[in-house]
Amino acid sequence: MQDILKVFLSVIKKLESQNIPYMIVGSVGSMVYGEPRLTHDMDLVIDILPADANKFEMLFPLAEFYCPPPEVLKAEIVSRGQFNLIHQGSGLKIDIMLRKTSEHSAEEFERRQRVPFIEGVQVYMACPEDIIIKKLDYYRQGGSEKHLRDIRGILSESAVDSEYLNTWIEKLSLSREWKKI
């Protein structure tokens, strides 16, 4: 696990060195706010422009990471899609998602916060409420119980803004999924 954290932190440092806005989401976020569990990938949301594709690719040389070529990166950036970085030495997969343009995505990214990650290192992380909202949506899409367990872990370990959470659960029609919690 220590090697995985080193790789992940190297990616974060590269993003920060070029002032590329990011936030950690997904299972790593739920572990920071909730209960630890095993994961084999890490999820990041970034906010870059198509003109940044070459700069992004140069941050991740092929000897160290598989990174899609600039033309693929540009297409994903324009479509606000996603792509993977794969660390050559460990096989660690990092899912990179481009920040969406929806109202919730804009607010979620605006609310990201700098939090302690490992000893002496702080990173940008989605707020616990937004990780819960995304986990509810992932549950709706795929039905995996791991998302519900992650949400329960966050609720047992972290204080959440219930008003914000309930507002977005209602706006995003996630009430049925929320009732399962």
Question: What is the structure about, briefly put?
Answer:
This protein has helices spanning 2-17, 26-33, 53-59, 70-79, 103-111, 128-142, 145-157, 162-171, 175-179; strands at 22-25, 41-46, 65-66, 82-87, 93-98, 113-118, 121-125.
Features:
181 residues, alpha+beta, Beta Polymerase, domain 2, five-stranded mixed sheet, two-stranded antiparallel sheet, 9 helices, 7 strands, 51% helix, globular
In quaternary terms, these chains amount to single chain
Q: Determine the fraction of residues in helical runs and give it as a percent range.
A: 40-55%
Number of strands: 7
**Number of H/I helices:** 9
Query: Which sheet architecture does the biggest sheet show?
Result: 5 strands, mixed
| Integer tally of domains | 1
Structural class: alpha+beta
Account of the 3D structure:
The protein has one domain: Beta Polymerase, domain 2. The chain has a 5-stranded mixed beta sheet. The longest helix has 16 residues. The radius of gyration is 16 Å and the shape is globular. The protein has 9 helices and 7 strands; from the N terminus they run αβαβαβαββαββαααα. 51% of the residues lie in helices and 19% in strands.
